[in-house]
Specification:
The complex is a heterodimer of chains A (235) and B (195). Chain A is α/β, with parallel strands linked by helices and 235 residues long. Chain A is built from six helices and five strands. The relative contact order of chain B is 0.15. Classes of the chains: A alpha/beta (235), B mainly alpha (195).
Chain lengths: 235, 195
């Protein structure tokens, strides 16, 4: 049997390596990651506020990403990877949407998390791209296309879903010693199983959940998971 | 007092064991199974789309009888085959499943290629909606398959390497390696449909 000390050393080294690997790529700096500079400062701040308001009302999390290039990947893969890595949407509801625009490839994708797939279907996502985004992009009005697209997505998702989750009071119980130990074991289980390889996908009501790493900007995903729903288009 | 101590020893023993991956095999097995059920879901979703798609295309593309029939036949092949409970440990059944789904993929992509010759059909709202659903489903299938491939790789590796191999021998003798998809790259890719 491996000595536990050794094991943890290796384990932490592994986690560290994983973290570094993730850092090298594009990071979730806010609701809008405008790497390709498609939005004017005014458009940027308006859209950001709009998205933040929408999230506070509905908890649906929409993130817009513009890239200069996909670096050889196809847009479906790229969007899925970002959505999962950032864990857009909450872990309970999986209610994230990622709008990805790649300038060089002239492609757009709306990636929809599990929880919203029935409300924002593939067909609807396709129609939004074709009717509300691409016409603007073809005229070179990138910022306007993004804004129209996001507004239509919000209109499709609707705003009624407001939900005030009454916090299930988590009481500190008195047999805390045992609970504490159990919790420690539990945490160890989770850590040691999530440290290696990808998380399992969701199935039948069990959510896989990405690991929503917190970002420096005070904005982060909530651990929502994606399964490839959504649509893509080119201009 | 004695029982407290015993409890403590037992618990720390458990902590050490969990660090050694005693739970990995069942955990990975469950996640591979979950990934598999997702694969099945997505394939089913595709099969459910086909009849509608075929009937929409039929109305416009009158000369494509053969292509349409091939799609329907592939669909009924793919859906009529009973999936045995042990498919994940049964190479022949797994192979057959994979083959019948690939046939349907092939027939569908031929159908979508043929559709290019019918501008009226391509302008039809209903068809566009079905087409985007099909595209979306193909993408989900690709995602589900990738997830499954990774989950099975992780599980199989755990079974065959140290220390999982030891746990498998001591505790999980019934755990068998699972079948994985083997596939040429071009089928993995989502079909690109231009408008």
């Amino acid at each position: 049997m491996m000595k536990p000390g050794n094991f943890f050393l290796i384990f932490w080294a592994f986690l560290g390596a994983q973290f570094l690997g993730a850092q090298a790529e594009i990071s979730l700096s806010g609701r809008i990651v405008d790497d390709a500079h498609l939005l004017s400062p005014v458009q940027y701040s308006e859209l950001e506020k709009y998205l933040a308001d929408y999230e506070s009302k509905t908890s649906n999390q929409i993130v817009v990403v513009t890239l200069k290039s996909l670096e050889g990947k196809n847009i479906e893969e790229y969007a899925l990877e970002l959505g999962r890595r950032w864990g857009i949407g909450t872990k309970e509801k999986n209610n994230g949407v990622l709008v990805l625009i790649a300038l060089e490839e002239r492609s757009v994708r709306i990636e929809v998390a599990y929880g919203l797939e029935d409300i924002l279907t593939d067909a609807q996502a396709k129609i939004i791209i074709e009717r509300n985004i691409l016409p603007y992009f073809r005229r070179g009005e990138m910022g306007e296309g993004i804004i129209q697209g996001v507004h239509t997505i919000v209109a499709t998702l609707g705003g009624e879903e407001q939900e005030l989750r009454s916090s299930d009071d988590e009481q500190v119980s008195n047999w805390s010693f045992l609970l504490f130990i159990i919790a420690m074991i539990f945490i160890l289980f989770i850590r040691s199983s999530s440290g290696r390889g990808p998380r399992p996908p969701r199935s039948g009501g069990i959510f896989g959940g990405g690991d929503g790493r917190s970002s420096s900007g005070g904005f982060s995903g909530g651990g929502g998971s994606f399964g490839g729903g959504g649509a893509s288009g080119k201009w | 007092m004695g029982s407290r101590l015993q409890q403590g020893v037992l618990l720390s023993f458990l902590v050490i064991l969990s660090g050694c991956g005693i739970n990995n095999i069942p955990t990975y097995e469950e996640s591979a199974k979950a990934a598999w059920s997702q694969v099945l879901n997505q394939y089913k979703r595709r099969a459910d789309l086909v009849p509608n798609l075929v009937s929409t295309v039929k109305a416009y593309a009158t000369h494509e009888r053969e292509t349409l029939e091939a799609v329907m036949k592939a669909r009924s092949n793919a859906t009529s085959t009973q999936i045995p409970a042990d498919i994940l440990n049964n190479p022949a059944a797994f192979q057959q499943f994979q083959q019948s789904q690939n046939q349907l993929s092939g027939a569908l992509s031929r159908l979508l290629a043929v559709v290019e010759n019918y501008p009226n059909l391509k302008a039809n709202e209903n068809f566009l909606s079905l087409q985007s659903q099909l595209e979306g489903t193909e993408n989900r299938i690709a995602v589900a398959r990738r997830d499954y491939i990774q989950a099975v790789q992780r599980y199989n590796t755990e079974l065959r390497t140290f220390p999982g191999r030891i746990w498998a021998f001591i505790l999980y003798r019934s755990a068998l390696p699972m079948q994985n998809f083997t596939q040429p790259e071009d089928v993995e890719k989502t079909p690109e449909v231009k408008f």
